[in-house]
Amino acid sequence: MGAAAGFRSSLTLVRKACATCRECDVRHQALCTAMADEHLHRLEDITSPVLLQPNQALLRQGDPCRKVYSLTSGMLRLFTDLPDGRRQITDFLMPGDYLGLVDDDFHSQSAEAVVASSLCAFPINQMELLMDEFPSLRERLHRMARAALRQAHDSQLMLGRLAPLEKLAGFLLMLDARTNHHPHHGRRLQLAMSRTDIADHLGLTIETVSRCFTRLKAQGLIRLPEAHLVEILHEGRLAEIAGIGLSPEHLRLAAS
């Protein structure tokens, strides 16, 4: 199979992710985990599925905020357009993540699919009414918002590091913490995003990102079986390179 095969689901699989809430692959990690099975139909009543192809836009910077979204499969990139025409990727959303944790009337960032992705869309006004009726839903949203703030804080620490190798090591650990919840030696980490995406996220050039991957591989800290697959061999050493405040334990806490 081609690059990022682990993320490029067929349309059949994407449609399955948009099935009923009870059958959803991220039922127990997304917002809907706050709803008891007997009440899930209330959430389904206000849900509409969204299917995106690779690089297709979900929303653009400046668009009015009318809906919130839960990513059920694939990956999204969030980015801001800079005045000089460049883009700064601020985050990558994973299945189970929630998009729309904003108080503004307009979106401050754009969102695009990295690979084929599916989402559940909820009108904001109807979601607000549902959260009033089910306080557990609002509390779940608050917990997700707190986790997002912790993650944003850790991202700032990572991006504040001067050395490119520190940035890449921190990025790999943070991504691993969000996607692998059962740590073991030699974890395999799928990288759906391109090296260009990683460079735009870390504020580096694509050549620098490639050199850093090569250095980490040469030091025996990672393996690169494929272009979009990384096997983490020494998490502790990567944490040391990433810097204080990015230990594996702290990263797992931030991802919870």
TrEMBL record:
<feature type="domain" description="HTH crp-type">
    <location>
        <begin position="162"/>
        <end position="236"/>
    </location>
</feature>
<dbReference type="InterPro" id="IPR012318">
    <property type="entry name" value="HTH_CRP"/>
</dbReference>
<keyword id="KW-0238">DNA-binding</keyword>
<feature type="domain" description="Cyclic nucleotide-binding">
    <location>
        <begin position="31"/>
        <end position="120"/>
    </location>
</feature>
<dbReference type="InterPro" id="IPR036390">
    <property type="entry name" value="WH_DNA-bd_sf"/>
</dbReference>
<dbReference type="Pfam" id="PF13545">
    <property type="entry name" value="HTH_Crp_2"/>
</dbReference>
<dbReference type="InterPro" id="IPR036388">
    <property type="entry name" value="WH-like_DNA-bd_sf"/>
</dbReference>
<keyword id="KW-0805">Transcription regulation</keyword>
<dbReference type="InterPro" id="IPR014710">
    <property type="entry name" value="RmlC-like_jellyroll"/>
</dbReference>
<dbReference type="InterPro" id="IPR018490">
    <property type="entry name" value="cNMP-bd_dom_sf"/>
</dbReference>
<dbReference type="InterPro" id="IPR000595">
    <property type="entry name" value="cNMP-bd_dom"/>
</dbReference>
<protein>
    <submittedName>
        <fullName>Helix-turn-helix domain-containing protein</fullName>
    </submittedName>
</protein>
<keyword id="KW-0804">Transcription</keyword>
<dbReference type="InterPro" id="IPR050397">
    <property type="entry name" value="Env_Response_Regulators"/>
</dbReference>
<dbReference type="Pfam" id="PF00027">
    <property type="entry name" value="cNMP_binding"/>
</dbReference>
